[in-house]
Design goal:
Blueprint: E1 5-9, H1 15-24, E2 38-41, E3 46-51, H2 56-62, E4 67-71, H3 72-77, E5 85-89, E6 97-104, H4 113-125, E7 132-136, H5 139-148, E8 154-157, E9 174-179, H6 183-187, E10 190-201, E11 203-208, H7 209-213, H8 217-236, E12 239-248, H9 251-264, E13 269-280, E14 286-295, H10 299-308, E15 311-318
Parallel strand pairs: 1-3, 1-4, 7-8, 7-9
Antiparallel strand pairs: 2-3, 4-11, 5-11, 6-9, 6-10, 12-14, 12-15, 13-14
């Protein structure tokens, strides 16, 4: 193997977003022009292959590329038995969309998947034994979802264009499609039924597990750096650093008291460090510097606790990366 090959979406909603995300992780992608289908992450010596998002799992499966970024919906739809393509990082926090079942708004008696199951059973008992016609591009996921909900009386309709218009054109009765906001569905007089979300999708990192296991040590180290850095970038989004100075007589006592107060308030502490300044305050007290890494949602609760101990000033800053003591790559 000469170089690790990463395949990225060449266009569409995941195209530029994937390049932007990798840039944020410290891995800018070099690409001469939008018309070129190759590029590189020069910092790691990784080659880039640009492909359609729906073609990426197969490229990795056949070994043309080793890792890639695409939508989870595509990965799940194209799964095969004993598939070497595995999801390495499930959520990259962009390209989010839900695969949902939507029916016409005029179907006022159908509000949940269970209502649809009842309708399917009723239609199967009619003299004409009519099937529910479903327009979708996700046949495997659709069939599994319907069978899991005891819906067997259906017919899948192949549609090459937009799906939302098919019920109005009498091509299909209902649709199963991706939606980000639901706006297009509503504008076409469709509604998502309760319990009708089949899959919550977003961009994910996938790889050929058989090829990865067979890589030599040099390639393993490159891949570890790539994956661990991305995980650390994603992890850091949930955390924030808090710093403050406190005047006290007994630094060790104040450290224990603040630490215990945080735990008593069920605040998860990722990092807690205390250091003592060499200088004393005007009141001849010690000045201690406290440095915390906490979840963003706990920020103001931490502020309240620090104020109880007369913190001089409190500053918070975002964290770019949050690496763990041990790499999660092998896991």
């Amino acid at each position: 193997m000469n170089k690790i090959v990463l395949t990225l979406p060449s266009k569409g909603s995941l195209g530029q977003a994937s390049m932007d995300f990798l840039g944020e992780c410290g891995f800018p992608v070099s690409r001469a022009s939008d018309r070129q289908y190759t590029g590189a992450i020069k910092a790691l010596g990784i080659d880039i292959l640009f492909q359609r998002a729906e073609d990426i799992p197969q490229k990795i499966r056949e070994g043309t590329a080793h890792i890639g970024i695409t939508g989870l919906d595509i990965v799940e739809e194209q799964k095969i038995p004993y598939d070497p393509v595995r999801v390495i990082i499930h959520g990259l926090s962009y390209g989010k969309a839900n695969l949902v079942l939507a029916v016409p708004e005029s179907w006022i008696h159908i509000s949940s998947i269970y209502d649809l199951a009842d309708l399917s059973a009723k239609w199967s008992l009619d003299k004409q034994s009519r099937n529910i016609r479903i327009a979708t591009k996700f046949k495997k996921l659709t069939e599994k979802f319907l069978q899991d909900h005891n819906i067997y009386n259906y017919k899948l309709i192949d549609v090459s264009g937009v799906l939302e218009i098919t019920p109005q054109l009498k091509i299909a009765d209902i649709i199963i499609d991706l939606t980000s906001t639901g706006t297009t569905l509503r504008e076409n007089h469709l509604k998502i039924v309760d319990n009708g979300t089949i899959l919550k999708s977003e961009a994910c990192l996938i790889g050929n597990i058989d090829i990865i296991k067979g890589m030599d040590n040099d390639h393993q180290l490159i891949l570890e750096q790539f994956i661990d850095t991305i995980n650390s970038r994603l992890r850091a989004r949930e955390y924030i650093r808090v710093m403050t100075n406190i005047e006290c007589i007994n630094p060790e006592k104040i450290e224990h008291e603040i630490h215990d107060a945080l735990l008593k308030d069920d605040i998860i502490i990722n990092t807690f460090t205390l250091s003592q300044s060499l200088s004393l305050s005007n009141k001849n007290k010690s000045i201690v510097n406290i440095n915390l890494v906490i979840q963003k949602k706990d920020l103001y609760r931490v502020i309240r606790i620090l104020r109880r101990y007369s913190a001089l000033e409190i500053a918070s800053t975002k964290i770019d990366y949050l690496f763990l003591g041990e790499s999660t790559y092998l896991k």
